[in-house]
Every structure is written in structure tokens, then in C-alpha cells.
Amino acid sequence: MQIQGFKDYLQETLGIQTQPTPWGEAAALPFLLRDRYEFLTIHLLTTHCLLMAPKSKSEETPATIRKHWEMVKEKWADEVIYVPQTISSFNRKRLIQQKVPFVVPGNQLYLPDMGLDLRENFKKAPAAPDVFSPATQSIILDALNHDLKETLNSTQLAKKFDYSLMTITRVLNELEETGLANVHTQGRERKVEFHLSKRELWEKSKAQLRNPIRSWETTYERSVFSDPTYVKAGLTALAHYSSLAEPEEKTYATLLHPKWRPKTRAQLLNHDWDPDQKTRLEIWSYDPKIFSKEGWVDPFSLYLALRGDQDERVEQALEEMMEKVEW
Fold first, then answer.
1. Is pLDDT above 50 for 259?
2. What pLDDT shows up at residue 260?
3. Of the candidates 47, 86, 161, 197, which lies 20 to 30 Å from 17 by C-alpha distance?
4. Share of the chain above pLDDT 70, in %
5. Does pLDDT of 168 surpass 90?
6. Are residues 177 and 224 in the same domain?
7. What span, in angstroms and rounded, lies between the C-alpha atoms of 59 and 55?
8. What pLDDT, in 10s, does the model give residues 67-125?
9. Which residues contact 243 (CB under 8 A, 6 or more apart)?
10. With contact defined as beta carbons under 8 Å apart, do 235 and 251 qualify?
11. Separation in Å, CA 135 to CA 125, 164, 205, 318
12. How far apart are CA 129 and CA 160, in angstroms?
């Protein structure tokens, strides 16, 4: 069906009749490629092309597709064309940036080396965000930290996360557009269902997940953080999840709620002072305690907060932490 759609699409858009045939040398490719793709050869205009058609409807990340495409190019001298059944606008944009030729039957065609780019005729869809909103990120993290199989409707999501129904509508649109979840309507409500495994959800979403720390963070004189509003974060939490040595300066995280804005930063800390130590307080764009366990920020949020750290010890500790995650 997928290859027939490819033939029909070329006939309709370019007036070209093709007859793809199985590639006789596909056995020379690594098993991981043969397991994921069907390989067929065609003549397109004056070029001998190799089609790389995924066997599964599930999308790989653009980086993975590029890697697989390069592996095939080592065995095929001419054009290699990626032919998925569907593709999200986010993945389409990334594949174009990486110059990976692709054809989505009935929808999209991008063959830069052959001078063919029919994007202006594509079906238009809302653009996928480069970075998720804090609300969308909260719901993704909730799925990663809790029951992935839980199906909630718009009203239930709004109540659970204290968001407006309008915000939840935007969240569901982002999740549907990026292919991270199935969204369907039942009665008057829209429902979201995560169909990927937790590991797949994490790998496919983390490029669009933001650092939870807001643009400013403050170092205060050390105070005793016994209030459950604050959870342990930063290198303090990373030391808890890995073999990294615990730093002297403790780090905590909290949400700067709008009702606090008239107050000074110092007034956020209603605790006794210990003048001999310092504490780092991070203000997050979503409430870290929602996903915290026993007073520690969750590993996924912590990874997002520290993944830009250039310290090799921190990078190794992050890898160690993620290896311990129970998927």
C-alpha cells in the first residue's frame, strides 16, 4: 500500500510512471536496517534511486533517520530516498535541514539533489514547536514519572495540573502534532493517550523539552529548607542519584507562583538563617514537587536542568542516573 501510494503520487504530481523492484543487494546491509526498512530500486528521471521505506508506522527521530540514511549511502552510490507513510512537521523540518531526501505519498516531496521541492503544495498543518510549553512539558513528565497508560480528558488534565481548559487545548494540539500521543474526541471531551513506551517517549521528546530553570536563579545565604514547597535539585540531587560527590552548597528548587510576585526574593525564604553556609535556590517554570519523590526532583527534570553542563564529571553522573531509570 505504501509503495503503491508512492507510485500514484509521482504519477499525479510529476507525471512519472515508475515500477519499484526489490533491491537484490539488500542482504549486504546491517540487520538493523533490513529489520526496519524495505529497500526497492526505481528509475526517476535520469537517476537510479533506492527507496528506504520504514516497515513500521512509528517515526524514528530525524537524527536516527539521518544516521540510517548515511549507512545505506555507503552501499548505494546514487540517490537514497526515505519514504515514510506519514511524517510530522517537526521531523519534516529537521530532515530538510539535514538534506535527507524524502517522499511522503500523497503529501510531501523533497529531493534537493534532483532539484525537486514541492513544499508549497503540501497540506498545511500547525507548526510543531521547537520547545514545548511548560504545560506540555509537565504532562509529558507526568507520563514519564507515573502511569503511562492512564487516559485523561481535558477537564481531568486541567484539574490535575491547575491549568485552564484553553491551555490544555494547546497542550493536546502540541502532543498530537508531534506524534507523541494519540488525541481523540469522546463526547464533548478530548482525551490523550500515550501510545509510546516510556523510553520512546523520552527519546522522541527530550530535544523539545526545556530547561525547567527560569532565566534567573539566585544564591541566598544558607537557610533551613524544611518547607515542602522546596525540593532538592541541582548537583545536590545529582549526587543523590549517582556516585558524584555531594557539593557543599545545597541546591533547592521551587515554583515562583504569580501570587508571590509582589514580594521580594528574600521574603520567599521564611526560615531560620544559618550564616555559615549558602544555599542555591532555583526558580522553575513548573512546580518541581509535582514529580518529586521523597523531597528530590525527578531524574528527567534534573537531566533537563543539567544537560548543558560542560563538566565531564556532571555528564558522566547524568548518564549514570539515566541508566538507573526504571523504564
1. no
2. 44
3. 86
4. 84
5. yes
6. no
7. 10
8. 999 999 999 989 999 999 888 877 888 888 888 999 988 778 888 887 777 654 444 44
9. 317, 320
10. yes
11. 21, 10, 14, 24
12. 24
Q: Answer yes or no: is 128 within a domain.
A: no
CATH classification at residue 144: 1.10.10.10
Residues with Cβ within 8 Å of residue 319, at least 6 apart in sequence: none
Q: Residues 159, 160, 165, 166: is their CA dihedral positive or negative?
A: positive
Cβ partners under 8 Å of residue 152, min gap 6: 160, 191, 192
Three-state SS for 148? coil
Q: How far is CA 6 from CA 53, 249, 269, in A?
A: 10, 60, 62
Considering 182, 205, 228, which residue would you say is the last residue of a domain? 205
- DSSP reduced 3-state for 11: helix
**Domain check: are 104 and 190 in the same one?**
no
Task: Count structural domains, the chain.
Answer: 3
Q: How far apart are CA 286 and CA 213, in angstroms?
A: 9
CA 143, CA 244: separation in Å to the nearest integer? 27
| pTM greater than 0.70 (yes/no) | no
Which of 75, 90, 121 terminates a domain? The answer is: 121
SS3 287: coil
Q: In percent, how much of the chain has pLDDT > 90?
A: 41
| Residue 143, C-alpha cell as written in the block | 507520563
Residue at 210 is within a domain: no
The number of angstroms, rounded, from the C-alpha of 296 to the middle of its chain's C-alpha atoms is 23
Q: Whole domain around residue 257: which residue ranges?
A: 218-323
Q: How confident is the model at residue 43 (pLDDT cuts 50, 70, 90)?
A: confident
Cα–Cα distance, 241 to 29 (Å, whole number): 40
8-state DSSP, 79: -
Cβ atoms of 118 and 109 within 8 Å: the answer is yes
